[in-house]
TrEMBL record:
Homology family: Belongs to the RETICULATA family.
Record's subcellular location: Plastid, Chloroplast membrane
One matching Pfam family: RETICULATA-like
Domain of life: Eukaryota
Protein name in the entry: Heme-binding uptake, Tiki superfamily, ChaN, Protein RETICULATA-related protein
Keywords: Chloroplast, Membrane, Plastid, Transit peptide, Transmembrane, Transmembrane helix
InterPro entries linked to this entry: RETICULATA-related (IPR021825)
Amino acid sequence: MADIQTGLDLGLVSPEALQNLFDLEQYPLLAELSHNFQGFRERLLADPKFLNRLAIEESISITTTLLAQYQKRKGKFFEEIDYVVTDTLRGIVVDFFTVWLPAPTLSFISFADDANGPDSIDALKGLLGSIPDNAFQKTLAGKDWNVGHRVASVVVGGIKLAGVGFISSIGAVAASNVLYSARKFLNPALVNNQQNKRSPILKTAVVYSGFLGTSANLRYQIIAGLVEHRLSDMFADQTLLVNIISFVSRTINSYWGTQQWIDLARFTGLQTQKSESSIIINQTIESANPATIGCNNTEGFTGLQTQKSESSINQIIESANPAQIGCNNTEEAGVDEIES
């Protein structure tokens, strides 16, 4: 853990950070994560309850996502189950990063010292290392964050989440389309009766990345920074109250975010349904085929097959009701014409 040693040498490690590190050593899993993964170490040092918050977020996300999906889709929940599964699986992956990326960190490595030039990768690392991971994070020893740094934190965090949303969305929609194709192959009749259209992969990825980079980014910046970092510190001696605040805020956020995404997806046309009249017309034409054939054969005796079949199709499309379409009148007319 060279970064900890660097912080000790520079006198930047506070007694609280050292105490957090010692506390982590008591738990084998946390000790393993903090020793081998710098990202976990930086987050666990800044917030020893980071993994608890991650577990709370994931459990809340799955539950509230399904509830919000059911409330929005009502009786079409199972009919649109592929959308539900897609959104839920994507949410599990994305929620990890929405907790991970905006979480406050405690790092003692200065990337700027290793920069070789303004165009080097190290210079970019130095720029990113100079801004906080959360816009509301408390200023650390050796750092001088102003309003510009905190605004940049929101922008950079939004870009990161947008990238996560783009990649995860492509994977989720592709998996949903594969599932749809498999269902269509196994049971074509069931799939043909579904009214929901398929989501375009690229458009879905663009819209979802924009949603994560704006709405989700701002919401999680506030929760991780204001609610769990600053407000919770005010009640640090009341562990139960802190956990309740975290649980309630993340529950509301997850539920509200899911509803926002469903509304946005429908507004942009990503998750829409074919019009009812279109479905009825298609089903009417398909179900009327045998009867139409019978009518056409009768009409063929009079030499009026073409004209009357066109008229029958127009009536089918206009009425869109197979029950109202009958062949008796046509057949009776054909018999009368033959007799005359």
